[in-house]
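[step 3/7] inverse_fold.run input=structure_tokens len=75
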């Protein structure tokens, strides 16, 4: 009886850990999915241009961010 109970507890612990790992992986994936990969030597303006070209940001947002990149002292 004790060995059956310990086996059930062990299986339940493994199932719980697996479920938590799957749940954590699902919540972390969407945040990383929208970020474009950055390669070394790629400048911020180039990344901004690519995001605009892919349609991730609109024209107004592109111009606002470009202004901040080219003139960071301007608010």
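[step 3/7] decode complete -> sequence:
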């Amino acid at each position: 009886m004790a060995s059956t109970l310990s086996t059930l507890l062990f299986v339940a612990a493994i199932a719980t850990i697996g479920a938590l790992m799957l749940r954590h992986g699902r919540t972390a994936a969407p945040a990383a999915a929208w970020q474009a990969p950055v390669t070394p030597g790629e400048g911020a303006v180039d990344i901004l241009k690519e995001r605009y070209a892919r349609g991730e940001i609109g024209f107004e947002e592109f111009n606002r961010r470009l202004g901040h990149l080219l003139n960071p002292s301007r608010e």
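[step 4/7] annotate
The mean pLDDT is 79.
The CA atoms of residues 52 and 62 lie 6 Å apart.
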